[in-house]
Design brief:
heterodimer, A: 250 residues, alpha+beta, Alpha-Beta Plaits, two-stranded antiparallel sheet, 9 helices, 11 strands, B: alpha+beta, Aldehyde Ferredoxin Oxidoreductase,  A, domain 1, 6-stranded mixed β-sheet, 28 helices, 20 strands
Amino acid sequence: MNCKKEEHCEEITENNEEGSKRVALMSSRREFLRNTSIGAFILASGLVPVEEAAAGKKSADVPKAMKFLVFDPALCTGCGTCQMACSTLWNNGKASPALSRVTVSRNPFGTSDNNYSPNPCLQCVDAPCLKACPLGAIKVEKKSGANARVIDEKLCKGVRKCIEACPYEEKRITYDAERNKALKCHLCNGDPQCVKWCPNGALRFSGPPDFSPVVEYLPQVTKKPMVDKSFMIVLEEERKKELGYPREEK
Amino acid sequence: MPTKKIYGWTGKILKIDLTTGLTSIIPTMDYAERFVGGRGINAKLHFDEVPASVGAFDPENRLTVMTGPLTGTIAPTSGRVEVGGKSPQTYPNESYTVSSFGGWWGPELKYAGFDGLIIYGKAPKPVYLYIRDGKIQLRDAAHLWGKDIFTTQEMLWKELGDGRKPQVLAIGPAGENMIRFAIMMHGSSSASGQGGFGGVCGSKNLKAIVVRGTGYVEAAKPKELMDVSYAMNRWIYRADQRPEQWTNIASFHRIGWSFFQGQKVKGWKWLKNYTRKAEACHACPLGCRVFSNITDSQGRQGSAKCNQFWYEKYDVQRHKDITEVFYKAAKMADAMGVNGFELIGMIPWLQKCFEEKIFTREDTGIAIEDVGTLEFAEKLLKMITYKEGFGKILSEGSPRAADIIGRGSQKHLPHMNRGFAHHWDPQLWSPQALFWAMETRHPVSSIHAMYWVFRMYVQELWPAAGFASSADVVAWSRELFGTDKAIDYSDENFYDPVHATVAKWMREYDVARRSMIVCSYGPTPLFFSSYSSAPHYTIPLRSPDLESRLFSLVTGSDLVPDGAALIAAGQRIINVERVIAAREGRTREHDTLADYLFTKKKKGKVTGPGGKAIAVERAIDRTKFESLRNEYYRINGWDAAKGHPRRETLDALNLKDISVAV
C-alpha cells in the first residue's frame, strides 16, 4: 500500500539551473519483508524438500534484469490505463485490474504525490518469486535482453507460492482463478505496453547503468507546469547502489 | 440451449428492495437492445417501474444506477456511471431526471458482476449495501450515520479492505437529512451532484454503496478495440503534450475557474501555489481534475474540478486575491454532501435579496457582508445541512425557498429552468437555449458536447486555445446539417430553424454517449477533430462513428453499427424521457427559460457568418424563441399543443410498448 511507501520515502534534493530537481528514492523494506514472508512460508507449508530445492538457487544463479519498469507516482493520475492495456492484451480481451500484471493503487485523500501510483513488477535482482516456485515455472527470459522473470504457463499449476514470495505488500503477481494460473509481468517481450499506453509518461522502461531513458525524460517533465520537477525513481537497494545512491542515505 | 455469450455487458441488473432486503436479477439484455445502457436503460426502467404520482422521497421511488457496455474496458473515458430517478431538486415539480459521476466505482461494479442497480423501498434502519464479487449484503450503518462523505469512505476502506480498497459511493449528513440538493460522492471529487439523489438515498436510509470486484469485462474484438482506443488515447495525450498553448480541456481545468473569468494571473496562481498533480477517472487520458496541496482540518488532501470553484469569486473579492478559502469551502460542501452547483445560484440570490431588503440578518441569522470568508461558508453549509433556522428553508433549494419567502424574491433567482442555476449563456447560442428549455435538468453534458462550436476550440474565439479554423467550423456545419448556417449565431440567424436541428442532433448524440458510457468531456474534441485542418489534431476516425465503433468492438453486436444508429438510439431514449416527463405533467409552458433571459442583455463573442467571430449583445426574443421551440417539437414528431411525443413517432422508434401507455 502507498502509505508504506510514503513512510520509507527519502528525498534527495539537488540544485541545478532549473531550480530544484528532486530524486526520491524509496527504501522498500524489501529485505525485511522477504525474510518474513519466506520464513512464514517454511513454517506453514512444511514442504521441506521443495523449499530446499528452491533455496538451492542462489542469487548469483539468476541473471540480473537488465531493463525494467521505473515509474513516477507524481505523474500518475490514477486512470489505470496501464492495467486496462495489460489485462486486455494478455487475457484475450478481458479487462480487469485483477488480471493485470501492473496495478494502480489510489488514495484519493493522500497528501503526497505518491497517493496515486502504478505498481509494476521491478524484476527483482534476487528474484524471490522465481526461487519460490516449487515447479520451476518462473524462468529468465533472455531473448529480448531484458532478463525478465517470466512464468511458463505450461508449467504453472496455480500454486501461488510466487505471490506469497513477492516482497511487496501490493503484490506484483496476480492470480487468474478461472485458468488457475499466476500472472506476472514479462515486460511484453521487451516492449512493455503499459509504458506505451500511459497517457502521462508515469511509467518508463529503463535499466542500468545510466537509466538513460529516465534522464532524457527529465527536461520534458520540467516543461509541464502541472507536474513537479522530478521523476521519482523507485528502486531496490541493489539498483540504487548501481546508480551511485545512496548519497545522503542514513 | 446454450445462451449466447455476452461481451461488454455483464448481463445482470440487480434489483434490491431495502424494506425487505430481498433481491432479484433482471437480465440487462432485455433492455440493452433498444436502450444500450446507462442513461437509456435508466429511462426505460423508470418508465416501467415508477408511476408519475410517486414523490422523490417516497420509498416507491427507484434509484437506478447504471453502467454501460463500455464501462470498465480500455475504451477511453469509459469510467462514468449514470444515475436516474425521481428528483427532489427539479422545480416546479419533483420529476424524473438523471445525473452521473466518474471515478472507478462503475468499473468496479461491473467487475463485481453487475451492470446496474435498482434500489427501492426504505430500510428500517441505516444500512449500507456491500457488493463483493456477486455477493450482496445489506449491512448496519449505525456507526457511519452522521459521518461526512470522506470519513465514511475511509471507515469503509478500513472495514472492508482486502489489500485493495473497495470503491465507495456515499452520502453525507446533507443526504441523510434529505436536503433537496444533496450529492452522492465517491473518491475525492466524483459526485452525482445535480438532481439531489443524495437525499433520495437518505430517504431510503441508505448510507453507502460499496463495491469490490475481481471479475472482468470481456471485449469481443480486443485487438481492434485496442487499436481504436490507442489512437484516441494518443490524440488526447498529444494534446496534453502542448500545455504551453493550453489546447485542451484538462489544461483549462488545471488552471481553474479564474482563467475562465478572464483573471489569468489568479488562474496561474492557483495552479502554481495550490496544485500538485492531475487526477483522472478510469481509462481517461485527460485527467480534468487536479490535486490540491491544501490540507483540510482532518489532514486530508483532495482534488478539485470546475464546479468546486463556486466560492472562488467571493474569496477573490474578499481577500483581493485567490486564497485557500474557496477550496476549503468547496471541500467542506463535498464532505457534508451539499451540491456546490446550487450554491453558485444561491449565494448571488441571497446577496440580491439582502440588497433589496427582502430579508435581513435578524430574519435569517446570515451575515451576508461576511461572504468570502470561510466562516460564512461554514455557517451557511451547516445551516443548510442540518436544517437549522433559516437553513431549513434554504435546504429546499433556492427556487422553493423563494416560493416560501415570497416578497418578490423569486424574480432575483439566477435559475434558468427546472430549478437549476445559471450556467453558460443561452442568449449567445440558440441551441443552448433549447437545451435549457428541453432538458430534464441543467443540460451540462449537451453544453459540453457543443463546446467546440460555442467557444472553446474555435481559433477565432479563443486564439490561444482554439484549434479549429473558421473553415473547419463551416465544414462541420455543412457536412452534418447541409448548411453553413448551423454555426451562425448572428442576430439575423439566431432563430433560424437549423438551430433546432442542431439542438436535436446534439442532444441525441449526447444521450447516446451517456448510454455507452463515454464521458461528455473527453472525446468531444476528438469527435470534431476530423473536421479540423490542424494537422496534429487529425485522426483517421470519422465520428459519431467513433463511439459506435467502440461499441461494436466491445460488444461484438451490430445493434449500433454506425453514427446514424447511435443518433437513432439517442432519439429513442430522449422520447422515453419525454414520455416520462409528459406523464409527470410537463407541457410546453415548462419548456421555457427564466424571465430574465428574455429581458437582460448579454454581451459576447460568437461565431457568425462563415465561422468568423462576431460580437453580439442581445436578450432572447420570447416569440421567436417559442417558434424555434415549436420547430424543435415538429422535427421530433411531438405535438404542437403540448410538446408530447405522438403515438406514431414512438411506434417509428420501436417504442410500441411505450406508445400503448401514452
